[in-house]
Specification:
By secondary structure, this protein is of the alpha/beta class. The protein is built from 14 helices and eleven strands.
Length: about 425
């Protein structure tokens, strides 16, 4: 099987008959850390928005993006308009036609992120100051749904008062239990999915290839053209994608390890960043490691979510420390090594990855394990990965359908000719 072209097709549900048509008036807010560059966080909202449009019948205008600040994230592959939750709150409370807004907590480890921590992840001093001014909740990315309900004085002014109830969804989050600042939002959520405990559902980023395959393929063509001058004729377009943020590992040791990997796989190294927000990856660190290597390497300086996914999709192997780098390598059926010690990585590998996929490794363990993927009779193939991938896609869609259909059912029917 050609694992690079294998594609498991998402089945779009059949359209409802006109007599069964129920359209939705209420807008929905995707709340998450998509106001800074971390490609995994941006993928959550991209996946959810596309599923809401294609699978749940939402019009794009009824899908809003909430964060700590208002910002345009287009250049990072994110939404063109993220609203601060202070702005979302005002909009929801005063919107007689489309409010009060439902809310989806998009994913990641946001259960453990208070507002101060979220502020520190903003990429400029100006954004950090703005985030402080726009605060409405002590939890950064789980704002209790009741904060979006209109105040009585506003409701009294509406000619036709809206429903006084909105709904909240915890979308395949990790990092349970929530810190105290985030407990109220979780405890009052109507639908819950965790990626690593009860209410188990896969990380929503596993849907990326299913929903964006054509965009990823088109972007990959551009990237390969950009790398053309680096990838020599002898490489035949082959490269090893490497992302890392490793605490306490000497750059010389890492460079030596990557040299061995490059020689063994007969492919050069291409470094890339999973995120450039504070505490994330650093292009300057990549430059340092690259300068210490004997084999050829290149630092790909993209800060765009789908460009990173596309780069991973065409690599012959993927090495990294990021959980979502691991997940993207998994969904694209790539040999994958993850340098990790955090519980979230171990949980993903245990619960969602193939049974023969490597567990968390140390840098000096890389080559012996990666070598099991190559050769005439490799010890590790992608056969099990394909099956596990298919199952995880269906499990996530089942979760999505369960909550999105209930949100639709809870709405008051309106004129069927009026699109959502």
């Amino acid at each position: 099987m050609d694992y690079n072209t294998y594609h498991y097709q998402v089945v779009t549900p059949p359209s409802r008959a006109p007599s069964e048509e129920i359209t939705r008036q209420r807008s929905i807010v995707l709340l998450g850390p998509h106001e800074r560059y971390n490609f995994g966080d941006l993928l959550f909202s991209k996946v959810l928005a596309r599923l809401l449009e294609q699978r749940a019948g939402y019009d794009a205008s009824r899908i809003l993006y909430g964060g700590l600040v208002s910002i345009n994230m287009t250049r990072f592959g994110g939404p063109s308009q993220v609203f601060s939750m202070k702005r979302i709150q005002s909009m929801s409370r005063n919107d007689a036609l489309h409010g009060p807004y439902d809310i989806v907590y998009t994913g990641g480890e946001a259960l453990g992120c208070n507002h101060d921590m979220g502020v520190e992840m903003m990429q400029t001093p100006e954004l950090r100051q703005l985030a402080k001014k726009e605060k409405i909740c002590d939890c950064a990315y789980l704002v209790p749904k009741k904060l979006l309900l209109p105040q009585k004085s506003i409701v009294d002014s509406f000619p036709s008062p809206p429903s006084n109830q909105n709904f909240a969804v915890v979308n395949s989050m990790g990092g349970y239990p929530p810190i105290k600042e985030c407990r109220a939002a979780v405890s009052t959520a109507d639908f819950i999915g965790y990626r690593d405990r009860d209410h188990l559902t896969p990380d929503s980023a596993i849907m990326t290839k299913e929903l964006f395959s054509s965009e990823i393929e088109d972007t990959a063509k551009v990237i390969l053209h950009e790398l053309e001058s680096f990838l020599q004729e002898v490489d035949q377009g082959r490269y090893i994608a490497v992302q890392h943020k490793i605490e306490g590992v000497d750059a010389i040791i890492l460079a030596q390890t990557l040299d061995k990997v490059s020689r063994h796989l007969k492919a050069p190294i291409v470094f890339f960043a999973a995120g450039t927000a504070p505490t994330c990856d650093s292009f300057s660190v990549y430059d340092e490691v690259s300068s210490l290597m004997e084999e050829r390497s290149f630092v790909y300086r993209s800060e765009h979510a789908l460009e990173v996914v596309a780069l991973i999709s065409k690599a012959v192997a993927v090495l990294g420390t990021s959980l979502h780098v691991r997940i993207m390598a998994f969904i694209h059926f790539k040999p994958r090594i993850t340098w990790c010690s955090e519980m979230k990585h171990q949980k993903f590998i245990q619960l969602w990855d193939a049974s023969d996929a490597p567990n968390c490794l140390k840098v000096n363990e890389t080559l012996p394990i990666l070598a099991k993927y190559v050769g005439a009779s490799p010890e590790i193939t992608m056969d099990k990965t394909v099956g596990v991938y298919e199952d995880s896609i269906q499990q996530y869609l089942t979760f999505f359908d369960s909550w999105s259909s209930k949100l639709i059912q809870k709405q008051n029917p309106v004129d069927p000719s009026h699109k959502l």
